[in-house]
Amino acid sequence: MEPRPLSTSSSLEGEIANLIVQTLNLTINPSEIDPVAPLFGEGLGLDSIDALELALVIYQNYGYKLRSDDPENAKIFSSLRMLCEAIEKNRTK
Q1: Running along the chain, 93 residues long, what does each successive block of 10 average in pLDDT?
Q2: Is residue 2, in this structure, part of any structural domain at all?
Q3: What's the CA gap between 93 and 23, in Å, rounded?
């Protein structure tokens, strides 16, 4: 069996986990965020206001503008890993 390659976004996942905790004033350690766990609902329990705050900070830090009318938002915000993949593909900074 071949070893799985490390995710190219693993360091970005750490950055974004820190950004989520700092931006939303969460009382958890960023390393406790499971990269594939849901960010909303039973996962971290984020809500639509949290998504707006994150979208603003992501735009400021990475130049990726998440639009509220994007039909991909549910997929993009489904987990830390999916959010990082979207940022990696669309970042300008």
Answers
A1: 45 95 95 93 89 95 93 94 96 93
A2: no
A3: 19
- Domain assignment of residue 15, given as a range: 10-90
Task: Look at the block and give the residue holding tokens 């905790």.
Answer: 21
Taking the model in full, what pTM does it have?
A: 0.85
Residues belonging to the chain: 93
59 vs 15: CA distance, rounded Å: 14
pLDDT in the model for residue 10: 77
d(CA 67, CA 56): 10
Number of domains in the chain: 1
Give the DSSP per-residue string, 21-87: HHHTT-SS-GGGS-TTSBSBTTSS-B-HHHHHHHHHHHHHHH-----TT-TTHHHHTTBHHHHHHHH
